[in-house]
Amino acid sequence: MGKTSYEVKAKFIRGFSDKTRLQILESIKNKEKTVSQIVDDLKGNQSNISQHLACLKGCGIIISRQEGKYIYYSLRNAEIAQLLDIMEAVFVQVEEEVAACERNDELDCCPKQ
């Protein structure tokens, strides 16, 4: 696998690496929603949510469709929903280790490049 392919995969995975984006994905996992509905679900502000939606769309994780004056957002496909389920199952297994890593200021689990 070439370096470019890994870079594209890393960009895709980056879409999942933010708390707000994960909350958005959970919000639209089973049903498409408008920005307003997502903002209500997350109790966030529209500008911030819209920026995260643009990121998720740019990473190929979600799609949108316009109906009248509303834009509806949904997961790109069922495999993205399955990926979220798998990530949750793995997280349950490693949650304590990840939490311990976050509590230890001297240990950076994933150093920034």
TrEMBL record:
UniProt entry keywords in alphabetical sequence: DNA-binding, Transcription, Transcription regulation
CDD domains on file: HTH_ARSR
A Pfam match: HTH_5
Classification via InterPro entries: ArsR-like_HTH, HTH_ArsR_DNA-bd_dom, HTH_MetalResp_TranReg, WH-like_DNA-bd_sf, WH_DNA-bd_sf
DNA-binding recorded as keyword: yes
Superkingdom as given in the UniProt entry: Bacteria
Residues annotated as domain HTH arsR-type: 1-95
Molecular function in Gene Ontology: DNA binding; DNA-binding transcription factor activity
Protein name in UniProt: Transcriptional regulator
Native source species: Paenibacillus selenitireducens
Lineage, broadest ranks: Bacteria, Bacillati, Bacillota, Bacilli, Bacillales
